[in-house]
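Task card 7
Instruction: Convert sequence to structure tokens.
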Amino acid sequence: MFFSREAHVIRRVLVVEDEPLTAFDNEYVLKQAGYEIVATVDRFAAAEAVIGQGRAVDLIITDVALRGVRTGVDLARHVRPLGIPVLFAAERFPADAIEQGLALGCLAKPFGSRDDLVEAIAVCERLLGGKAPGRLPQGMTLFALG
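Output:
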């Protein structure tokens, strides 16, 4: 009998984070977990450029406050018509994003542990696959259940 593993919905991640140490740590943790980091950038315009190049992105993990004028909420609004899911990683939950369903959820910073980010992506993957979210990592709030 053959046992098959489910295909992963999320493999390629765009990290948008304006704190260099946090960005480096997130990138390291995600690479160790087997994710491909499409790019790590610190502002809306740079994220927009990566997406505009046609690079495949399965999930954007973005802070709300970014360098420059535009925010992570602006980025979520920008990619919504493109069908790219967003997970906020921020100190505060953006109320307007919650109301508009712009992201799957938010993982509160600072993270309780390094594993919280990987576990949050697993929750997003289950949601995108039409499944129940399962156990949420510490500090994660879902905005929409599917």
